[in-house]
Amino acid sequence: MAPRKSTRGKAPMEQLATKNPRVAPRSINKYTVQCEKCSKWRVISTVEEYEEIRCKMEESPYVCACDDPANIEYNATRTWAIDRPGILKTPEGFTRSLEVRRDFSRIDAKYIAPTGKKLRTLNEIAVFIEENPTYKDVKLSDFSFTSPKIIEDTIPEDVN
Ligand SMILES: [Zn+2]
């Protein structure tokens, strides 16, 4: 099954979920960005670098070393999910975690606080900041629970 042709322009960032649906936990295992100029997909090696690109995407679209051969192809051998550009970088000390639901219906975003506490809503984050004055300078607006949208055409066929 071939994936939808081009997603560029609308949502130029993509993330890949795991290849094998039976391997748990199904989390994002590769971060990729599409070049604005040559349309090649590029694997971004760290989530920090990826978040940096994603947060600036709207003002400064990503451009690669276009002469280099592509290091990943956009096709249905992997499950892909489109991320929203503009989501801010995860505040220092916190980890943003994305988990793909068993049935591939959606991806859930949560944050893990420096203490290890899992935070699933903005309200939980607000309470955490209030209870932990060390993080009083962390802004609530730096957090986003907007999760990448799974591209249906790339969901493995044996998933119910
Ligand atoms: Zn390029």
UniProtKB/TrEMBL annotation:
MBD domain segment(s): 80-150
InterPro entries: DNA-bd_dom_sf, Methyl_CpG_DNA-bd, Znf_CW
A Pfam family matched in the record: zf-CW
Domain CW-type: from-to ranges: 25-74
Subcellular location: Nucleus
Chief subcellular location: nucleus
UniProt KW keywords: DNA-binding, Metal-binding, Nucleus, Transcription, Transcription regulation, Zinc, Zinc-finger
UniProt-recorded name of the protein: Uncharacterized protein
Annotated organism of origin: Salix suchowensis
